[in-house]
Structures are given as C-alpha cells and as structure tokens.
Amino acid sequence: MNRRAFMRKTAALGAAAALPSVLRQGSLVATAPDAARARAARLGSELRIGVIGCGGRGTGAATNALEASPDARITAVGDLFEDRVASCLTQLAQLRGRAEVAPANRFVGLQAFEGVLSTPCDVVILATPPGFRPQHFAAAVDAGKHVFLEKPGAVDGTGIRTVLAAAARADERRLSVVAGTQRRHETSYREAIERIRGGAIGDIVAARVFWNTGSLWHKQRDPTRSDTENQIRNWLYHTWLSGDHIVEQHVHNIDIANWALGANPVRCVAVGGRQVRTDPANFGHIFDHFAVDFEYPPARDGAPRFVLSMARQQDGTAGRVEEVMRGTRGMARLASGFAQITGESPWQFTGQNNNPYVEEHVDLHAAIRSGTPLNEARDLAYSTLTAIMGRTAAYTGAEVSWDEALNDPTDLFPRDLQMGALPQATVPMPGRPWPPTPATPKSP
Ligand SMILES: NC(=O)c1ccc[n+]([C@@H]2O[C@H](COP(=O)([O-])OP(=O)(O)OC[C@H]3O[C@@H](n4cnc5c(N)ncnc54)[C@H](O)[C@@H]3O)[C@@H](O)[C@H]2O)c1
User: Fold this and answer.
1) Topology of 3-182+360-381 in CATH?
2) Cis ω on the peptide bond leading into residue 33 (within 30° of 0)?
3) How many CB atoms lie within 10 A of CB 354?
4) Adjacency order of strands within the sheet including 146-149
5) With 90 as the cut, is the pLDDT of residue 31 above it?
6) Tens digits of residue pLDDT in 233-266
7) CA distance 87 to 181
8) What is the CATH number of domain 184-358+384-407?
9) Is the pTM of this model over 0.85?
10) Per the omega criterion (within 30 degrees of 0), is the bond before 152 cis?
11) Does residue 108 contact residue 78 with C-beta atoms inside 8 Å?
12) Pocket around ligand 1: residues whose beta carbon is below 6 Å from it?
C-alpha cells in the first residue's frame, strides 16, 4: 500500500481527525499489519532514525546505522544532558548531511525520549544507561517504532517483565527489534554456534564464560551537580543504572552460553565482592568481581549441565574475554573474531569476519524493509535475566532459581526520579537481604 492509499484507508477508518498524528507516527491509528505494510512501502526510499542516549554508544550506533543503509538519516536526538546532544551532533556532522537534525527535533531532559518518539522517525536507537531501557523500550513500541535495543535489557526483574511485555506488543505490531548483543551478528560466532548447535561437539556438558578485565572509566563526583546528575554521569557504578558489571558487560558472554546451549539456567550460586574499587564517591556501590555457577536443564542423557561465569574489573589482573564449551565429542573456544572446534570434527574460522556493530543495523533494516519482522528482545531479556540472577546470588549469598529471578518484585528505579537529592545505595553484603528495604511490586 502506498502512502496515499494508507492515508485514504486511515480516513476511511474514521480517523480523519487524527490525521496529523497518523502522519507523525504511522501505526498509531491504523491496524498493526496495515501500519507495518505502509511503513515497509515508505521505507523503500528512506529510513529516519532517532537516537535516545547520545553518549559513546548512541553516537557509535547512529554512525553504524548510517553505514548500514545509504538511504538512512538521523532525524531526531534526545539526551538527558545538552552537552551530550551537542557532542553527538558534532561527531555526526562529519557524516556530511546525513545527521542534520533540526533544532525542533533535539530534546533534552528526563522526558527527552518522549520528544524523540513524537517525531516521525521509523527506528529508534536506545542507548541510555540500562536502568532507563525498559521504560524507553515500552514507550518506543507503543509509539510504533522499530528499535535498536542496546544491551543489557534491564537491571532488575521488574524491568525484565516490562521488556518481555513490550516484546510481545512488538510482535503484535510487527515491529522489528535488534539487540546490542553484537556477537549474534558476527560471522565467526554465527558459523561456530551453527556448528555447535548442529552437534559438532556433541551434547554440551559444561561451559566457561569470562569477561575479566581492568578498570573502566569513572567520573569524579562534582559537588556543584545534583546527586541524580552525579550518579547518572557516573552510571556504571550504580546498580539501578547499570545492573553492575556482571549485567552491563558480562551479559555478552552469558548470552553466548544461553545461545549455544539453547536454554536458560534453572538455578545458580555465586560469589562476588569489592576489593579494589572501594571509594563510594568514585565507584558507587557495585562489586568488582563475580563468579557464578549456573545449572542448566539436563542434557539428553539426563545429566545436569553447568556453566561457570566469571567477571572481574581489577587492574593488574589477568585479562580474559571468551567462551569455552566442552561437549561429549569435542570442545569449542570462541572470542571476537576467533572460533575453534577441536575433537571429532575439528574446525577453525578462517573466513572474512564482518563488523558486527554495522551488521546489527544491516539485519534490522533488512527486516524492516522486507516486512518480515525480526525480534531479539526476548533473547536479550533472558540473557540479561541470567546475569541479574547471578548478581542476586552473589549479592545475597542465596541460591537463586530462574523462577525467583523472573518473578522478583525488586524495582531499583527511584520513585519519582528528579534531578535532585538521591540517596546512595549501600554495598551489598552476602548473608543479608538485597535490596535492604523490600521492594514494592510494580506491574509491567
Ligand atoms: N554493545 C556494546 O558492545 C556496547 C558498548 C558500549 C556500551 N554499550 C551499552 O550502551 C549503553 C550506553 O553506554 P555508553 O557507553 O554509550 O554510555 P555513555 O555514558 O557514553 O552514554 C549514555 C548517554 O545516555 C544519556 N542519558 C542518561 N540518562 C538518560 C535519559 N534518561 N534519557 C536520555 N538520555 C540519557 C547520558 O547523558 C549519556 O549521554 C549502555 O547500556 C551500555 O551497556 C554497549
């Protein structure tokens, strides 16, 4: 259906009075399949992209999206802080004419996401700190936008349920969602996992996944800024914003375990703590190391399967970022750009690897244009939940089951968030409940 036919149809539906909103948001008035078809037809010529969260990754993902599609443009941007919008636009200006965002389509503040969603963009890139992701994802789906959903999907069980509910609505509306777990779009990983799932190492009996590294950036507390601004600018170190580094960073490796095993864990136990980054002014309250033993559903012979996950951010320690799987007929070792299988069916990736950060957008745009939606939100939600359950087990010292994690009423997002005073959470202590005050359940 072309644009004119689409507008005639929406008028026939008695939506004439809502025409400006139809023009702005496409799918809000028409039925979902009609809207998807109308969008696909229009997308033959141009793809308009909005960015929510204009920091390092938002700017990077915007650049990757433009690389993926020659006829894509950045048409709207939003960030909590004006300086981040400005630096993002300065960087994107190098892409000559493809990111000339009109001043009316630049939004600042806690409601900036609503501003971006109110513009007639087709796709939104969600790249704020993860604590905002569930709210922004749900709003993007409800506004009828296709989504590039950065990882992790949420920071707590409540957020995961919001993402899962929004993923179901995205399916109903035939919207595409690609997640920022870029290994799933990397050629070496795709070929290796296809072989592993095809039986190249037999049944997987155990795996080990690692993200052991040194320290990351941090922003010194600025006494002229509010608590909220200080925490959000230094978001890695506050669990309500980042989920802690097992969720924020190690989710990539945990996602590979779930993908290769084709399952989510049933329970876990974990240890973790904070030995090096102890200054709350710089490093909030998160841990600097975790080790989790995840138990997965049994293999075909009935034996339980285990995945060791280890994540460390401590300077001067041995670095390791990879996934290793042991099967009944061999072993697989995977890392970015490297994939090797040893045993009965030896193989090593020797092909031309791709840039997975660009490929994510190639795959998203292809799904949008073909009218055959791709929705990775559930996989992201489940891998994120796996990391969250490992974190809860380490924070509390308790054994945590999948169902407990999925139904956990914890909602870390501050009530009525304003740019003002905000208490700093205490460092979790195994053997004690976490979060210390019981959370009030919130429906998605
Ligand atoms: N896939 C990957 O390999 C990869 C790599 C880096 C980062 N990431 C993810 O991307 C996300 C962003 O990370 P980053 O490195 O770009 O961080 P960043 O601090 O550089 O950028 C985050 C931006 O979001 C803005 N922001 C904060 N709260 C906001 C709100 N409520 N509304 C609008 N804007 C808001 C901040 O001002 C900042 O500009 C994180 O989820 C991170 O885990 C993924």
Assistant:
1) Rossmann fold (3.40.50)
2) no
3) 15
4) 106-108, 72-79, 47-52, 123-126, 146-149, 177-179
5) no
6) 999 999 999 999 999 999 999 999 999 999 999 9
7) 25
8) 3.30.360.10
9) yes
10) yes
11) yes
12) 52-58, 78-81, 84, 110, 112-113, 127-130, 132, 150-151, 180, 182, 232, 248
